[in-house]
Amino acid sequence: KNLDERACSSCKEVKIKDRFKKTQLNKGTMAECSECNGQRKARAKEERERLKEVAAEYLRVENKMMESLGERSCAKCDAAKKAEAFNNEEKKKGKMSICNECIDKEIAEVEAAEVERKLQQLTRNARDENKLYKEKKDQHESYAKNSLENGSDIEKEMTTPSDVVYVITSVYYGGEPYTPKVHGIYTTCRKAQEGARRAFERVSTTYRDGEFLPNDGRQSKCDITEFLIPGVSFISRPLFEEFDDGHCAAIAINAVRIDTPVESDLPFISLKHSLYVGQKMEGGTVSMVEGTEVYAIFEFGPGHHMDYDEVNLCGVYRDREKAIERGKYFTNFSSLDDSDCSDYPYIKECQKSRDEQLIKAQVTTNGLLFNDPHEGKAVTLEKSTLDQDIKNASELDLAHMKFGYGSNTPEFY
């Protein structure tokens, strides 16, 4: 007998092994050939459909008989009930097959499962919030202790201006578009702390006078503004809240040295929680003064992760020209002149757009500076007066910005 052949257990014909399907159970082949297996499955399917039709017909006949008596049978609990116990089904212009009592039970079960899910989510969020709160409290207390040992006072540092400025931004997600706003730039950590709370009151509907109001729809919240550390380069998301319906709001504080190029991510998306870099700013020779006009540069483009687009704070400058020069760094303008394809129509089009943007930038004091849709990048300039709230803050003019995993949906943790 040929080892590459075998007999089918159904039709008894001898066939080559390729005519038998493989099985995962014993890593061999099925006893019956593929043709017989397919025919058997087809017959089983036909039988199931026949039985369904028989059952449906039986139910129709039974219900018709019972309806003549003013009753019908429920397809779920199988109980005979009055016709009034069944809702009307508009599409079929008759009564529903499941009684109202069974429908109510199903709804109650679904609602109970949803309540349990929310309860578990709230428990996890509360645990994470407590962990974050303790972490920032410990950092703050450790810094205060070290300051005291070194003959300093954290309360004094909180109110003393230096060459560090604190940039406050926010996001609110409740539809499209979803983009950050600048609420102010401050000279001291204390003023930034207070400014952040005021800003959050403007973007949140449930945060008032430094406290969260009760809200059953809130999934998570956080307020760690009391634990900000002065004189330290940091990125912090000290205030945020998120709701069941997807609405969310957050405040970020980025502490940076004036007139210094940085690439400081706004911690709304890629950071899971507030981050203290822990770098003490030494060597500063300038103390910023309330009322000084400054210019912040923000850049939008592909982030460190391929699926993320990010908005970065790239520096705060007292001189507008220096701020614009910083913005140019994030464009590909210079490479257009070095290209071997400079005579191509596409390159000429890009060069023309670049020249127009550079001319416009010379008179721009607020808003979009440079925009390169081909590269997915944009740069904006935001003018601000130190220690003054921007009460009617508008979204950063970054043109085509999109967030997170190719969608406009932020990720809050």
Describe the structure.
The strands form 6 sheets. Strands 7, 8, 11, 12, 13 and 15 form a 6-stranded antiparallel beta sheet that branches. A 5-stranded antiparallel beta sheet has the order 14-17-16-19-18, with helices on one face. With 413 residues, the chain is of the alpha+beta class. It is elongated and about 90 Å long. Strand 3 and strand 4 form a beta hairpin. Helix content is 33%, strand content 26%. The protein has helices at 34-67, 100-149, 154-158, 189-203, 320-328, 333-338, 345-361; strands at residues 5-7, 14-16, 71-73, 80-82, 88-89, 94-95, 164-173, 181-186, 207-208, 211-212, 218-223, 232-243, 248-257, 264-265, 275-280, 293-302, 309-317, 367-372, 377-385. The chain starts with a strand and ends in a 28-residue tail after the last strand. The longest helix has 50 residues, at 100-149. It is built from 7 helices and 19 strands.
Number of DSSP helical runs: 7
Helix content: 25-40%
- Estimated share of beta-strand residues: 25-35%
Cα radius of gyration in angstroms: 33 Å
> Which spans of ≥5 residues are poorly predicted at pLDDT below 50?
269-283, 304-308, 400-413
Secondary-structure element order, N to C = EEHEEEEHHEEHEEEEEEEEEHHHEE
Report the count of strand segments. Answer: 19
Protein structure class: alpha+beta
- What's the average pLDDT? 79
The separation of the N and C termini measures 67 Å
Describe the largest sheet: 6 strands, antiparallel
Based on Cα principal axes, name the global outline.
elongated
Describe this structure in a few short sentences.
By secondary structure, this protein is of the alpha+beta class. It has seven helices and 19 strands.
